[in-house]
Amino acid sequence: MKAIIILGSRNPEGQTASAADALAQGIVAAGGEVSRVFLTERSIERCRQCESNGWGLCRSEGRCIIEDDLAGIVDQIRGADVAVLATPVYFGDLCESLRAFLDRLRRICRHDAGKTGIAGKPAVGICVAGGGGGGAPNCCLSLERVLATTGFAVVDVVPVRRQNREMKRQVLQVVGRWLAKADALQ
Which residues are CB-neighbours of 66 under 8 A, at least 6 positions away? Predict the structure, then answer.
């Protein structure tokens, strides 16, 4: 089983990366493979809403006209068995890098060509809140809605707070082991 973890975090040693690493450890322990993409290290522009109707090639061809790293990351997702999207929580919502990525991904997935290899693919969300942590549940709701709109089969969304981080790392390891089992993805 191959998993790709898309991280919206800027800090590879931070709380979001640590939570994603716990899930990855579970996948690897169960015999799976994991690759990671840090969106802040990639070039991902925001949607331009190309035409006067707010759409463009995304709607008519299932691809984006912007030449940046989006297409390559989408290809990596298509080549994986499961997608994991991890975000730090800012203002009770997704971080800006993941939001920009998902805004464009869901647009290309409105067309059948864009849905290929994504529609029905199992996905897990991880939302990690620092500070008081109160925004994690709202962020999970937002992430789940966007993933469902994109066509992923959302199998879990895990809220993590600074205060429960160690316990949730254990939960995420279990989720990773579960994902690596073929019957979990059926």
Answer: 45, 48, 104
Q: Which domains, from first to last, does the chain contain?
A: 2-185 (3.40.50.360)
- Bridge partner residues of 97 (DSSP): none
Q: Residue 184 above 70 pLDDT?
A: no
Amino acid making up residue 48: R
Determine phi and psi for 106, rounding to 5 degrees.
-65, -25
pLDDT for the residue 5? 98
For 112, residues 6+ apart whose C-beta sits below 8 A from its C-beta are 62
Lowest mean pLDDT among 99-108, 116-125, 166-175, 176-185: 176-185
Question: What is this structure's pTM?
Answer: 0.95
pLDDT of residue 133: 84
Pairs from 17-21 (Cβ < 8 Å, separation ≥ 24): 17/86, 18/165, 18/169, 19/86, 19/126, 19/128, 19/158, 19/160, 19/165, 19/168, 19/169, 19/172, 20/84, 20/86, 20/126, 20/172
Looking from the CA of 166 toward its CB, the CA atoms found within 13 Å total 1
